[in-house]
Amino acid sequence: MATGKQVAAMVVSDDGILGGVPVVAGTRIPADTVLAEVRTGKSRFDIFRSYPSLPADGIDACLAWEKAGRPPCAIHS
Hints:
Helix content is 34%, strand content 9%. By secondary structure, it is α+β, with helices and mostly antiparallel strands. The chain starts with 10 loop residues before the first strand and ends with a strand.
């Protein structure tokens, strides 16, 4: 679970990537997909194995985004 630490990965939105669906920056992995995996009880190991392009702190970035109330994402280009 996310702690109070800063994470380098972030959730971003870009109309050119999945029609603007919030994704983990630098990937095409939707933040909601990562969060769904966490909610089903998948281990971090299994999530990273399923999504090898997910950065090491990608899960924490998604959890922090959700904890912040899913604010509008930075537009990343």
